[in-house]
Design goal:
With 192 residues, this protein is an alpha+beta fold. The chain contains three helices and 13 strands. A hairpin with an 8-residue loop joins strand 2 and strand 3.
């Protein structure tokens, strides 16, 4: 019972967070320029001491495509926190990021608010395969279509156990020991 309640709560939070992306965030497709470790300032006063349990980095991104026209520069610098220090959003060449502004004017990336994107051969930004992993309601509104991408891209198969779940045949084809996306969704279908 506890797991079902927790699952419903997490689904609600996911839907709420996605709906908030359009309202109060700077949403863009970017390419990483730089990354450096970051130590948040210590907050200490007579009654409060803040201890950060997450790893932190400061990153700078080149903005390739703005999905909301609420930021003037073509670069942005922000802070990100991660429980394990993986910062997976920094690994792909291109990502869709949803950055928020703090009260002091700096920017931060809420945890896990990113999606990997690529350019299709027709020059449009798109999500490969089923990488977008949205809630069921949004997934039912999205139209996946056959798509090829500019850069040759594939996922190396590490575990056959996860293969069917992670790479459904509807979205990927198997070539040797890799899964290649064959369908995608244009970014502008979700961000209009």
């Amino acid at each position: 019972m506890y797991q079902k309640i927790l699952h419903l709560f997490l689904c609600f939070v996911s839907i709420y967070n996605f709906s908030q992306l359009k309202k109060d965030s700077i949403v863009f497709i970017g390419e990483k320029i730089s990354e450096e470790s970051y130590s948040p300032p210590k907050i200490v006063n007579d009654t409060l001491k803040v201890v950060y349990l997450d790893y932190a980095i400061k990153v700078k991104y080149h903005i390739l495509n703005k999905l909301r026209d609420n930021y003037d520069s073509d670069t942005i610098e922000f802070i990100s926190f991660d429980h394990y220090g993986d910062f997976n959003f920094t690994k792909p060449k291109y990502v869709l990021l949803s950055v928020k502004k703090t009260s002091d004017g700096s920017f931060y990336l809420p945890k896990y608010e990113y999606k990997t994107v690529a350019k299709s051969i027709d020059g449009k930004w798109a999500f490969r395969g089923n990488d977008i992993r949205l809630d069921k309601e949004l997934m039912s509104k999205v139209v996946f279509q056959p798509m090829l991408f500019e850069e040759n891209f594939s996922y190396i198969i590490k575990s056959k156990k996860r293969l069917r779940k992670r790479f459904p045949k509807a979205y990927y084809k198997r070539e040797n020991n890799k899964m290649v996306p064959i369908k995608g969704v244009y970014v502008d279908q979700l961000y209009k």
